């Protein structure tokens, strides 16, 4: 049985993996560039904060936020 922390880590890491794939596909980036975008984003900061509950959302939803942040330099107003 997984602990709550293990579940949280799994969900965050799954979102990161999926967002990396989406960035590579959408923007034709290499893995290092995609990871750099994610790890320097406000979206990841929010994803890793348990209080936001963002980790409970689908990776596609979290990617939507990241994509908007990457394209515009800021998060959409939904947060």
Task: Please describe what this structure looks like.
With 79 residues, this protein is mainly alpha-helical. Helices cover 67% and strands 0% of the residues. It contains four helices and no strands. It has helices at 4-27, 31-39, 42-47, 59-72. Helix 1 (4-27) packs across helix 2 and helix 1 packs across helix 4 (59-72). The longest helix has 24 residues, at 4-27. The protein starts with a helix and ends in a 7-residue tail after the last helix.
Helices and strands in order:
Elements (H helix, E strand, L loop, with lengths): L3 H24 L3 H9 L2 H6 L11 H14 L7
Largest sheet entry = none
Q: What is the radius of gyration?
A: 12 Å
Structural classification: mainly alpha
How big a fraction of the residues is strand? under 5%
Mean pLDDT: 94
Distance between the termini: 32 Å
Shape estimate: globular
Q: What is the number of helical segments per DSSP (H or I, 4+ residues)? A: 4
Detail the poorly predicted runs.
none
Q: Fraction of residues in helices?
A: 55-70%
Q: How many strands in all?
A: 0
Order of helix and strand elements from N to C terminus:
HHHH
């Amino acid at each position: 049985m997984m602990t709550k922390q293990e579940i949280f880590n799994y969900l965050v890491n799954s979102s990161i993996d999926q967002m990396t794939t989406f960035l590579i596909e959408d923007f034709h980036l290499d893995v290092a560039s995609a990871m750099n975008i994610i790890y320097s984003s406000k979206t990841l900061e929010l994803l890793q904060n348990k209080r936001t509950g963002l980790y409970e959302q689908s990776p596609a939803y979290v990617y939507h936020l990241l994509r908007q942040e990457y394209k515009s330099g800021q998060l959409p107003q939904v947060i």
